[in-house]
Amino acid sequence: MKQSGCTVFNDRHFSCENCDGSVSGGFDSATSQIVLCQNNIRQQAHMNRVVTHELIHAFDHCRAHVDWFNNVKHLACSEIRAANLSGDCTLMNEIARFKFGLKGHHQTCVRERAIRSILAVRKVSKETAEKAVDEVFDACFNDLEPFGRIPHSKRDAKRAYKDFQNRDRYTANL
Are 33 and 14 in contact (CB under 8 A)? Predict the structure, then answer.
């Protein structure tokens, strides 16, 4: 976040609150604050996914100046990226949801979760959400910043972080 021009302070940019329904977290663009729903998160792994998902929204807000309220394509892109990169659609999570599939299943999950997220935060029709997701899907699904890869496991996430730490190592001396 800092390298993208946004400083994050744990005591200011993170908030734990009780939330309604089954919402696990959210990103408040007005305050650049990540809200964790303490009454709906029961496991550390779930919290890790929620924090990662919301940090991707914060990263997009900082880097791309997302127009959250007026441009549903911007929202769709950030939701696609968050579902793709946060671990929301890992094989184990999908099996726990009783959703199985092999070929293209990760993309299907990302698409479905992005649409679901848009519908949860905006009063738009399902058709509008689906159209926005379809129009930006390829570009946003393939935007892997700041990880450079889809972290499918904890080991993969550590490898992505190591790659991130070394990303300018070779070009810094040119």
Answer: yes
Options 17, 54, 127, 130, the catalytic residue: 54
- In this prediction the pTM is 0.83
At 28 the three-state DSSP class reads strand
Q: How far apart are CA 116 and CA 126, in angstroms?
A: 9
pLDDT tens for 10-33 read 677 888 999 888 789 999 988 888
Write the CB contacts of 23 (distance below 8 Å, at least 6 apart in sequence): 37, 40, 120
- What three-state secondary structure class fits 15? strand
Q: What is the pLDDT of residues 52-73, one digit of tens each?
A: 999 999 999 988 888 999 999 9
Q: What percent of the chain has pLDDT over 70?
A: 79
Residue 54: active-site member: yes
Phi-psi region of 65 (alpha: psi -120 to 50; beta: other; left: phi over 0): left
Q: CA of 149: how far to CAs of 33, 47, 122, in Å?
A: 25, 21, 29
Q: How many CB atoms lie within 10 A of CB 169?
A: 8
